[in-house]
Amino acid sequence: MGLMWRYGEVSGNPRWKGMAWGMLPCLGSAMCACTWHLFFNAPELQFLVALQAFLTVVGNFTCWWAAYRIYQGAQEEAA
Hints:
Layout: H1 2-11, H2 15-22, H3 24-38, H4 47-78
Keywords: Membrane, Transmembrane, Transmembrane helix
InterPro entries: Uncharacterised_Ycf49
Protein name: Ycf49 isoform X1
């Protein structure tokens, strides 16, 4: 995420910063998985499984959207 943000600053293309923001739900999903396994799959933390699934879906969509915006920007520059 930091690399994407930095590339957006260096290239002057703010759409790359959008990709960094788009990756944020994926990071949340990973934290849910790590927490779940850190506590040996405790039944009290079962809600983390559903939260991880939700954040994965949201993260996949936001990364797709950010990648599409980067692609759109490249197409506009080429025209």
